[in-house]
């Protein structure tokens, strides 16, 4: 099940809200949330609910052991055990086939393989439970005493399958006790509506256009066509993922949880470093706090640390070489920027730095889009006119003419212009008028999204595969 589906919007969520607010008892509310979260996860893949519960159970007991024997060898062994179990599960389900394929290509030895479907959201909830046991070991949080409360943390459907990666310490107090006010609930509804608009109205539209251009097996590639197609894919992946994060943050607020921001207008960045401070913030901060800094950060072996982090960042996104190349591509850019130095970069005109980032970002998305490295390299060479292909063709020109208004709208939506304008308009209104404006915005978004969902079968969610 996805948030941007009619089943979720008109059945699952309303029933969940009605039952949740029908009682004031915290334990009953927790039980309702756990039940609905497990139902949400089981909607697509019932069998993998057992894996989710197993992961939660393993780290619940590891956390208790770590705290009970803090400072002793037993505590360290429990931490190592948690790391081994969680990473082994992730490695088996997500990377074993990739490993066996490459091992066979290098050695000629055929290892046993498997063909299980990838459990949805395993990369997200594995990192969440790992961060919990590590933080308990570091003494940054106390181990949760209630298994059901810990299961609630792991299974919360708001962020279960696509993030943001929520750390236990950030919502520990709200797991124990939370209060939903009218203002918080209203903010949650508005934030959810914003995310729904991003996903259904912008991401789906951009994705449908991108797929028409980027299928190099079915179309005739051109220089401008490839740039246009990758730009549309850039819109799709940003509004798809940031829209889902907005919906998750909004849902969390409706139920009394406050999740940290996951995006901060990344396409306005002026460097690769700046881009990754703004894109998928929860993943970047995870690798910074649990990999980069423990390895030595910038104090020692910085080059090694950067490339380990960006190798893992690429690998986290998928078990194929295109994602690894994509991650290392950003690792190279970030290391080069560190060599140049922030002071020198700041002297370069901002428009030039922004232009560099946009070109680099679009090149990076080519590696992200095409799982075949030869295809990705072919497309990049086409974009720079090295394949001897036409600059543009009639079909591409027509497609661009049909979508130029949408393209401009998507560009503006990548900036804070709409947000700032909405805040200014609302501030100029009286309280009741501002509330009416919010209601009209939410109602209009729901109406448009419903029309789009009913009238189109194209509703992918890109980050489900991670």
TrEMBL record:
Annotated keywords: Acyltransferase, Cell membrane, Membrane, Transferase, Transmembrane, Transmembrane helix
Record-annotated membrane-spanning stretches: 33-56, 77-96, 146-166, 224-244, 307-331, 351-370, 377-400, 406-425, 437-458
Signal sequence, start to end: none
Membrane topology: Multi-pass membrane protein
Family annotation (Pfam families): MBOAT (PF03062)
Xref: InterPro entries: Ac/AlaTfrase_AlgI/DltB, AlgI, MB_O-acyltransferase, MBOAT_fam
Major localization class: membrane
Subcellular location: Cell membrane
Family in the record: Belongs to the membrane-bound acyltransferase family.
Name of the protein described by the UniProt record: MBOAT family protein
Species of provenance: Fusibacter paucivorans
